[in-house]
Amino acid sequence: MLLRAPAKLNLCLYLGPTREDGLHELCSLFEPLGLADLIEVTPAERDEVVCPGVEGENLAARALAGLRERGWEHEPLRVEIEKRVPVAAGLGGGSGDAAAILRLAAGEVADLSQLAAELGADVPSQLRPSLALVRGAGELVEPLPDPAEHAAVLLPGGGGLATAAVFAECDRLGLGRSAAELEELAGRLRQAAGSGASPLGYPELLVNDLEPAARSLRPDVGDALDALRDAGAPLALLSGSGPTAVGVFPDLAAAAAAAERLDTDEAIVCAAGRAKLAP
């Protein structure tokens, strides 16, 4: 069986107060990208998760173990992940892989959403990748209508920026908004995105509060955003905790033309807004 685990793009990310569990309240719009990891699942003598080029345990292995702990009796599986989504790049690659494994047990294991939340803040939204308003620390997911056509150019910057480090830098810089402001922003995002408009129709709402912290840790983030604007991006933003800079374009042709102007092998051109879960 071959599966796709789409990357996710944070079209915006508003940072709220710190909760009692140490996590921050968030308000974000997530959408899937055409860029995806490929996952091959085959029968095996014992469960095994292999991800060439990525050291250490990954979320997909934890997801499979979590299913077993909840009584999933499917035959043992070998899971081999072909990483196409850059690692530690703010694109939710590991979360998407974990969600793809959880989808194998859909209808067979109760409370997959709870298990997804235990695995990580980005995993619940990736159980059914779609445009969604995401609240809480990522566990509250409100699906929205598919957006109008648009595409993205990604500049991953080599990845390697840890989410925890970015949030710690946000705290050091004193960044964040009140709960009341998050609630007001959620309403505005729901109204703007709920019409099925392209994100290019409401750019004033597409702000990432983590950007100052990411730029503090990785000044090259600013250079990448400037390069995308110079290449003609109507909207340039940071995805998640970075360091991936993203240019949003009206269609794939415009995105591809901009990538040529960037003149770098790093640029990734992909469709945005709709998920493809099978090859």
Describe the structure.
With 279 residues, this protein is of the alpha+beta class. The protein has a single domain (2-271), classed as 2-Layer Sandwich (Ribosomal Protein S5, domain 2), CATH 3.30.230. Helices cover 32% and strands 26% of the residues. The chain is built from 9 helices and 10 strands. The chain has helices spanning 59-69, 93-103, 112-119, 123-126, 163-173, 179-193, 211-217, 220-230, 252-262; strands at residues 2-18, 24-43, 48-50, 77-82, 132-135, 140-143, 151-155, 235-238, 245-249, 268-271. Strands 1, 2, 3, 4, 5 and 6 form a 6-stranded mixed β-sheet that branches. Strands 8-9-7-10 form a 4-stranded antiparallel β-sheet, covered by helices on one side. Helix 1 packs parallel to helix 2 (93-103) and helix 5 packs across helix 7. The radius of gyration is 18 Å and the shape is globular.
